[in-house]
Every structure is written in C-alpha cells, then in structure tokens.
C-alpha cells in the first residue's frame, strides 16, 4: 500500500475547521505573539553568544560552542538529591523555581555554551486539550489516544496561559545567564508528538500511527496540522520569553522509511520553520532526529539552520553530504563519556576536525546517559574551551577537512 502524501493537507482537513470561538481565540493569540516579538530584538552580532553565532554560520569564531542534550538531569548528584525531594517529574518540569534550578545546575557546574530549558516535549499537550500522566514504569501515558475525526475536532488552539511556567522560567534564566551562554528552548516535531498522542504513550512498533497513514489519512493530517500550528505558537512564545535558539526534536522520525518521513513529517516541520523564519528571523533553528543517517538531505530541505547528527553518522560524511550552506551539531557518542579521559579528548578533536572550522556546534549524538560520570562531562567542556580553530586547521590539513559544497 502506498502512503498518501501530505501535500493536500488543506483540503483533507476542511472537516476539522475549528469553531468560530476557537478561531477568534487563535487570532487573538497570534496577535499577542506578534505584539510582543519586538521586545526581544537581536543585539549586534558580536554581542551575541558564541552558540548563536555558530548556528548562523558566522566566520572567524575562535572555537566551536558546546552543550549537551539532556544536559540537566539524572546523571547529576545535585539533580538526584532534588528529585528525592520532588519525586514527580511533572512537578519538576512544570514548577518555575524547580525548572530554573535544574536548568542552572549544569551551567554552574560545567559552564556550557548553551543552557537548555529543563522541560519535556509533551509539556504543551494539556494546553491543546490532551492530558497526560507519567508513570514510573511506563513513562508518558495518554488515557484517551487521539485516533478519530471527532477527537481531532475536540483539540483546541494552544492556550499559552497554561504554559506560564515556561515563559516565567525562560525570562528568569535569560536574566541569570546574562549573555554568558545562549539560552535554548525546544519543541517536539509534529510527527514525534503525534506518536505519543496516537499510541497513548511510548511504543516500540508505532503500528497505530503508521497504519493511520493509509486507514485514516485525513484524521492523521488533521492532527499533524493542528500540532504544527500549536508548536509554531509555542516556539514564538519561547522566543518572546527569552529563548535565543530553538531545537526541534523529531525523535521518532527515524522510525520511518525516508520516503515516508518525506510525506508525513517533513511538510509539517517545513510549515513550522517557514512561520518562525517569518516572525522570528533572528532565531536559529536546529533539527535533530535520532537515527537520521538516511534523512540528512531531506532534513536540510526543511529550511532549518543546523542539522543535529546522531552518533551513528560519520561527521565528515555528514558534512560532505550537507555541504557548507548549513550548520551541523554533534556528534560524540555518549558512550565515550564512560571511556578514559584521553580517549574522550581524542574523540572530541576528531569530531571537531571532521566538522570543519565554521558552523559547528559540538554536542553528543544523543542525550547524556544515566550514570555518566560528572568528571567526564566537565572534561568534555574543558577540552572544548581549550580548542582553537587556528591551531586545529592549518595549511593543507585545513583544506583537506573543509566541507564540500
């Protein structure tokens, strides 16, 4: 069975048009987003954090900036102590004081170049009418998976007031960091969020949502379109609250064959990118997919500024495939943080040399693993701060390692 394309989204979701009151709310919300966008106009380039400048592909930077996915969290003893006092993940990720404290823990300990908000890609779901719980044994649980036309109709435009803790936290963090690092926000891509909404939580097979591509394509398109609109609003809200760079996680996009991702994920990411580039043109966008080796060229076509490579992609090969016109992020295997420190040092040097002296954000190829030694995380950032492009890339070596257009 051929998978339907998403090119006919508008026609396919005509039956899903919101009620007038929802439309009015949506218009008011978009107006509010636009009216606040001028409050955080970009500073002069030289005043911006290193990470933002690298994400834009600026020339002449002294070294690559670095941060880590899952930078804040369970590998840190300080976080573990806090989690014992506040055992609910929802409480930790939806309470302003706790969000700020957890976000700042790795920044105080390791001084990364990027500080990413402690949150979850599912955090905005209740704000569109999809409640969820988190089970210690099962992870996220959605009691009423969305699989019908009627359920999609019941979704509401995102109510940003219900996400006030995100905005408050970002404003506080922007002030606390005070320009010494870039403040990153993040969202899940529509397909990835939809996997949870349709499956009812975590899954290893994705059979319900994959089958909807041909058993209920109009319903799935309606859901993805609604999510794309909500996620766009959520990104703008984060930017207006202080986020300087946004990462889009299509975490489960790699579970799709490339031609299916092209049809069912890429169009909705492009829709988001197009709107953000129009309304927040100064904010770089990073796209990360776990298992993205077969998707790099397709990811580039979304219009984002930076492609995050997972650890299974050779950085030099990724650079050759993507060319000079787009940034790359990554991609040290998180397992190297368990190796002897000299081995980790060598791997950092290898990745940086393979990425080239422009448009590279050093990161892991996936999130920090549980039980990762904090000493290794500190070493990762210490090594990065010691790097200098002018000594790493000299003469014929630099020419050899330059990305191919």
From TrEMBL:
GO terms for cellular component: chloroplast. It catalyses: uroporphyrinogen III + 4 H(+) = coproporphyrinogen III + 4 CO2. Residues 18-57 are annotated as: Disordered. GO terms for biological process: chlorophyll biosynthetic process. Pfam families: URO-D. It is found in: Plastid, Chloroplast. It is an enzyme of class 4 (lyase). Pathway: Porphyrin-containing compound metabolism; protoporphyrin-IX biosynthesis; coproporphyrinogen-III from 5-aminolevulinate: step 4/4. Keywords: Chlorophyll biosynthesis, Decarboxylase, Lyase, Porphyrin biosynthesis. Its EC number is 4.1.1.37. One of its GO terms (molecular function) is uroporphyrinogen decarboxylase activity. Residues 65-74, 184-200 form the Uroporphyrinogen decarboxylase (URO-D) domain. Catalyzes the decarboxylation of four acetate groups of uroporphyrinogen-III to yield coproporphyrinogen-III. Belongs to the uroporphyrinogen decarboxylase family. HAMAP family: URO_D. This is Uroporphyrinogen decarboxylase. It comes from Urochloa decumbens.
